[in-house]
TrEMBL record:
Keywords: Hydrolase, Membrane, Metalloprotease, Protease, Transmembrane, Transmembrane helix, Zinc. GO terms for biological process: proteolysis. It is found in: Membrane. It is a multi-pass membrane protein. Its main location: membrane. Pfam families: Peptidase_M50. The lineage of its organism: Bacteria, Candidatus Moduliflexota, Candidatus Moduliflexia, Candidatus Moduliflexales, Candidatus Moduliflexaceae. Its cofactor is Zn(2+). PANTHER family: MEMBRANE METALLOPROTEASE ARASP2, CHLOROPLASTIC-RELATED, REGULATOR OF SIGMA-E PROTEASE RSEP. This is Putative Zinc metalloprotease.
Length: 75
């Protein structure tokens, strides 16, 4: 049981570091962009990045739920 919890925790940690702006990895990516450009991103660009990240993440979550449900039901 502890091994399973460790695997789930590690998987969530790695998923959270993906460079999708809604996740922590996306925040790190936006900070890196600001550092390299040497000026802060405007609020409009940050909001646009968050919206795009959410549009990437929602279909991914739906796909994962679909796979889990079909696997549970044996389809």
């Amino acid at each position: 049981m502890i091994s399973f919890i460790g695997v789930v925790s590690l998987s969530l940690g790695i998923f959270n570091l993906l460079p999708i702006p809604v996740l922590d990895g996306g925040h790190i990516f936006l900070l890196l962009v600001e550092f390299l450009s040497r000026k802060p991103l405007s609020m409009k660009r940050r909001e646009l990045a968050q919206k795009i990240g959410l549009l990437i993440l929602i279909p991914l979550i739906i796909f994962i739920f679909y796979n889990d449900i079909t696997r549970l039901l044996g389809w």
